[in-house]
Amino acid sequence: MPNSHKIQCACGHIRGLLTSTTPSNRCVCYCEDRQAFAQHFDAGMLRWYAACCNTPIGNTPLTPRVSFVGLIHSCLVGDAPSRQASFGPVTMVMGVKSALGNDKPRSAGLVSGIAKTMAMIIKARLSGAYRRSPFFNPDTGAPVVKPMVLTAAELAAAKSATR
Question: Cα–Cα distance between 11 and 7 in angstroms, integer?
């Protein structure tokens, strides 16, 4: 399995290389919030976007002390096979009640996926690796950009747009 993967926004202004892509925990999430990409701050998560073209990049907890980023496939360069080569197969499927269409997928791998994610978070916490994040200032722990907080009406509008 490769140990890196290219990332870029839709317009190509932001480009980068993710290194140390293993271990990873691939998840497909059908939650309404993830589908709506409800601008940056909802339910304890920060949603990160490229400022140039609003390409969704990923979701992180509100604090850098929990080392986790849920990357969004739209910013990962390449097709499904290249993502699988870099990050491994999908091991968890969740939020299926919110999936669009009549043929809903089945939930899978929740217990093992959560356990693997928690193990990776604990390892990063114990090793200090959680301090190395492109999303948070290492000295203050604050997000590197000011989060935009949606009003309840904005969040409802974003969710209804996905239905």
Answer: 12
Residue 159 counted as domain residue: no
* 135 close to 143: Cβ distance less than 8 angstroms: yes
- What pLDDT does 62 receive? 85
Residue type, 53: C
Candidates 122, 25, 27, 116; CA nearest to 67 is 122
Whole-number pLDDT of residue 33 = 52
When divided into structural domains, the chain yields a total of: 1
In-domain check, residue 161: no
Q: Tell me whether residue 92 is in a domain.
A: yes
Domain extent, residue 119, equals: 4-154
The C-alpha atoms of residue 75 and residue 114 are separated, in whole angstroms, by 23
Q: In this structure, is residue 123 part of a structural domain? A: yes
Minimum mean pLDDT range among 49-53, 64-68, 75-79, 154-158: 154-158
Of the two residues 18 and 101, the one the predictor is more confident about is 18
Distance CA 91, CA 109 (A): 6
CA distance 132 to 107: 32
Residue 98 or 133, more confident: 133
49: nearest Cα among 31, 36, 37 = 37
